[in-house]
């Protein structure tokens, strides 16, 4: 397997080298992606072999050809059309002149990095109806490479190993109970010969865990559940036997949550794997665990022994979470000077707004400092390391504006750590959310959002518009060094380099570069649609490239916010690049008037149902950014078939599932009336 991959990769390289006058031979003979290479990515400075570039997930590149003096000459070399129109969140990997990336619906592509031509594509054939279970778009954040194989987690919960040379599946295992609302959007990591994969679904009602599979055979080696299951059954680990005392009620019937949907880091010397766990399921602790409790290990950073999956230590960032304050955000490892000592640390900026520095060997809290505006907590108790909650943060008496909200002070968009500046570059955001207890008694609905809160509570509440920043954070002093404001949140992940640069895509459709030391804007390029993914950099035939997946979507894009979506692309830049980006925008025809004589009460009922059942994908107030069709602009033919589509499922193969189990004909009629009223408002 390994041999055939090598020979094909080398032959591609040889063809390209034959066309260019010269090229360092060692670049085409990059060693295999084996355990030694992944532990020591310094031996592959010109490549990008694992999700965060190294096991410490620093997203720092030592390359210096592009630097603060010449970055203004950066130009497009080529743009690669992905042929997709949903969110792109992948960090591509680059090895031996081949770019491995993922698209919506967990499709994997191998692209010749020199020519920008597709080598192979593998589509896992995910049932498009599964898209209804993806809280935050049908995205995928990338693959792992190891010994001639490419690993991907699929939206329907499989882990698949592909032949890196051909894209043919070598093994394909189901990692979840597919009858439940599990999804996988995160990138696997290969550590110590094992593929590590988590999953998502805590908005719907699942129990979180992370699993390790043998990289060669696909056999499961261990699994760590993050929350206890039914206490009448044996606990899967000692950690859970202790954690059960922090829960009350019948949480297991709703899953409990704590999904491991993004952050994974690894310290090979300590043999510890670090994961971040997600929010409670349902969100609201009053329903999930009505007698209170910390609900371990929700919203926690957890250290596991890589060989066994046994827990070594944990730190819970948000005890008794009631706000969707996941701690799944990017985890990074570094050695930092703390109070006169070099400490092996772990860093995270989870949704709750505190930047944490922990000793990664022991879990000792070294510092926790607010990195964004917050009102849910007023500080950290020094002895216990617990956040001190503001009096009304749990919205028990009335609806409350809480900051950060479910979008978080920082979401999944990766940070980066530059050892030369000592700074962490965070796609930070200031955004609140209005939380309230549910209007009616909670009843669990399989396959639907089950937050146990009133999701429409924000109607009519005046509050500040969400604002995003690039924040350069000093993790030693616990303070901001510099920041750049943006017009909106959901800006892309960051990359920092030894060229004293920080790169980022923005939600307003730009790629930008700043001087890493002081935040001076040195380069920007307009790329059309909003960019969420983090860029990467690599060197090929003596040229340093900057590459990013550009495609708007995700939870924020689906909710109707942000720039109008453009077709998905992979953009490749280098010094002196002169290619021109074709501008493509989604055209909208003026909608034909459709008369409706529905009563205001029916329209209001339709608005409420729309918020509950449709807005997650088609946008709040039926305003879509174009990622998913804006229903106000639906053709008369579509509106005439609304019952066949919504209840009959006739467009399920296109990603619009049947809602026959969730909506009655009468309810759909009121949603239709609401849509027609919103449509009529387009003619003021
Ligand atoms: Ca969540």
3D architecture notes:
The protein is of the alpha+beta class and 684 residues long. The protein folds into 2 domains: 3-24 and 33-119 and 143-164 and 180-451 and 466-575, Quinoprotein alcohol dehydrogenase-like superfamily (Methanol Dehydrogenase, Chain A); 600-680, Cytochrome c-like domain (Cytochrome Bc1 Complex, Chain D, domain 2, Orthogonal Bundle). It contains 11 helices and 39 strands. The strands form 11 sheets. The protein has a 5-stranded mixed sheet, with no helix packed on it. It has a 4-stranded antiparallel sheet with strand order 2-39-38-37, with no helix packed on it. Helix 7 (600-613) packs across helix 11 (665-680). The structure holds calcium ion. Calcium ion binds next to loops. Calcium ion (CA) binds at residues 202-203, 278-279, 324, 326.
Find the CATH topology of the largest domain: Methanol Dehydrogenase, Chain A
**Major sheet attributes:** 5 strands, mixed
Q: What is the CATH architecture descriptor of the largest domain?
A: 8 Propeller
Name of the CATH superfamily of the largest domain: Quinoprotein alcohol dehydrogenase-like superfamily
User: What portion of residues is helical?
Assistant: 10-25%
The parts where pLDDT drops under 50 for at least 5 residues are 1-28
Number of strands: 39
- Overall mean pLDDT stands at 91
Count of individual domains: 2
The multimeric state of the shown protein is single chain
Widest sheet: strand ordering: 1-33-34-35-36
Cα-based radius of gyration, to the nearest Å: 24 Å
What is the SS-derived class?
alpha+beta
Strand content bin: 25-35%
CATH class of the largest domain: Mainly Beta
